[in-house]
Amino acid sequence: MKTRTVACLTILVCIVAVFIAVVEQPRESTQERMERDRRVLRVIPGRVTALFVETEKFALELSRERDGWFLRQPLRARANEEKIERVLTILEELPCKERITAQERAERGLTLEDYGLLKPRVRIGFGETAGRRSILIGVRSPLGDSLYVRLEGSESVVVTAPDVLAAIPDSVEEWRDRTILRGPPVSVDRLEIKRADALIRLARVEGEWRIQHPVVGRAQRAKVARLLEALFALRVCQFVPDLMRHTHPLSEGQAAVEVTLWRHGEERGKKILIGRAVEEPGREEVYARRGESDSLFTVDRAVLDALGVSVDALRDRALLPVAPEYVAFVRLAQGEHNLELRKKEGPQWFITEPGQWKAERGAVDHFLRDLTAFGVEQFIDEPGTNLALYGLDPPGQVVQLAEDSPASAGVQPKTLLLRVGGDVLDRKRVYANIEGQPAVLEVAAGLRDRVSVDPLRFRDRTVLSLAGASVRRISLQREGIEQTVERTESADWRPVSPAEGTVASNVVGELLARVESLRAVRFERSAGEEPAAFGVADGGRLSVTFGLSGAEGIQKTLVVGTPTDGGCHATIRGLDVIFVLSGEVAESLNRDIVLKP
Prior knowledge:
Helix content is about 20%, strand content about 35%. With about 600 residues, it is an alpha+beta fold.
């Protein structure tokens, strides 16, 4: 392509581009133009950075800053953002019902004074990036359903809705923000309440509220939360005029209550001073001010009730500050006896001391729920050094809880150690102490019974778990008579003793189904302790032996003894426990497996 041709095409492209940019640029649509004409003025609330309001009663100036809206004149204070946004929104949507030009006014023989716009009732100015504009507000129309306004610099009078008048507060006080504390209550990390009768300090430590003065201990989260919510809900009832505040001094030394709150990372807290009651009939208010401000105001006197809380009322009365579902390790000690429980394989618990057994998950969960439900009846904050008075030197029992099992090496999990007192002179009381906390706690006497080191309380009540397919032989001995059946190669059962009998297939089938998961009603005691007393010595009154095949090539013998409350005593030969089978299960075992021919 020749150079001249390229040059011509380039020039043509530039001409088209200029035409599109200049001639065919986007224009305001008819609908947009009609929408604009239907409004008194164009204002975007989010772009307004300053607001000026002048009425017959006051003149004020407001500005939008990084932290919100503030009054600049006639005083420096935080402004009521809700009222400001309402005024700006109404101005944005102010409808234009009619425009009356200067010529039309002249033809009607009317002047700006007739519309109340020579000396307007209200002047509202707002500053934007483009500059400052003002709207002048005059009188209502004769029928009262419209309002006359004029944009400063314009000769036209606009008829609009009267809504804007109702949105403008009647006094400077109403433009002020009545919020005393801003932000969410959960942002507070420290709290101090100072009264003539008490000084209470609380701090959030590792997510939990702790009392640091006048005692040391846990605070109840819900009560602290309610206290903070009451403080953050506090609103100014009335601002005290500057001319009067000197007659109602409220310095830190004169305040009835001083409250200081620190948010996370703050070195200097926010202080609220609350003084005496307002001495006017019908006003249930007290004087108050922020510590960093001279402005005096009143608040609902109900705040005194919230701040009059005692340190004892704030204390957490739960004995153990732990949720049962988060506990994964339990160690109980009583004298020389120990019991250790560990959660393994997800939710499954195991006894790991004094022996190795599977634990009954429901029993452990019930124990933890029961233990953590105990409450403190009384705090003894200065127990002295003689802990023997409370049965705590040495303790009668010790409970150790952790969210993970202690490791033999490396980082050890955080544990909670509870010491339970032994017998004292007053047998109706039990005292306890949590390691790291100085107070002695008085609790219900039933706590001692809950802390038992008997492993039978927690052992898995499944006493026999055999796969039915692995059972090759069943022998039933009762009153000196033996009945035996054996599985054939074809998986059928044949009688062995007496050989001429017939196998009771339904009874054999039920036996196999039961021993797949045979559960005890409860454990009674160690089998090493006089088993004859339970009728399980030797063969008992009934014994059933299951011969197993495969890798399990062993046999299990279930011995049933004397009846007892809730069933019959029983044991598994070779195990160390006696348990109770339900009466139904015991009766189902006491049936012939070989029928006479």
